[in-house]
Amino acid sequence: MKVSDILRVKGNELYTVEPDEPLGRAAQIMAENDIGSLVVMEYGDVVGMLTFREVIFCIVKNGGEIGATLVRKAMNDCPLTCTTETELDEVRRMMLDRHARYMPVMNQKMLKGVISFYDVAKTVVDSQNFENKMLKAYIRDWPDDDGAREA
Question: Nearest Cα to 116, choosing from 125, 104, 131, 128?
Fold first, then answer.
């Protein structure tokens, strides 16, 4: 299974922010859209990733306030990325190794979407449930020994 399979089900709605926008505005966008991350874009290129983790770290660092902080100061400027052709097992390994909850999906320099650890886990569970259902159906339809001998 590949990242493209997740995006096909999830859709390709993207939320982005520019690095020189106020962090408070970025947090508001995340809250209004019930999302945990924003891709930071500048001049059409991905330059970073902002997640609720970076927002919280910034608030704590600023004594409980966002203040006039810009996205650029809080964002991860070297986010982990994958492509639509990356295998799901590789994505899981990458996300676990780097403790990444969100990952931009890129093809060349084109942003194709963002996948979350939740998206990956849901896809794996759905795939396992489907496989289990198919195996149970196969076992239920298993021919008995008499039918096998007659054939």
Answer: 104
For the chain, the domain total comes to 1
Flag whether pLDDT at 145 surpasses 80: no
Tell whether pTM > 0.85. Answer: no
Residues in Cβ contact with 50 at an 8 Å cutoff, skipping those fewer than 6 apart: 17, 23, 26, 37, 38, 39, 40, 71, 74, 75, 76
149 within some domain: no
| Cβ pair 46, 76 in contact under 8 A | no
Q: Give the span between the Cα atoms of 127 and 145, in whole angstroms.
A: 31
Type and span of the H or E element at 115:
strand 110-116
Q: Coil, strand, or helix at residue 78? A: coil
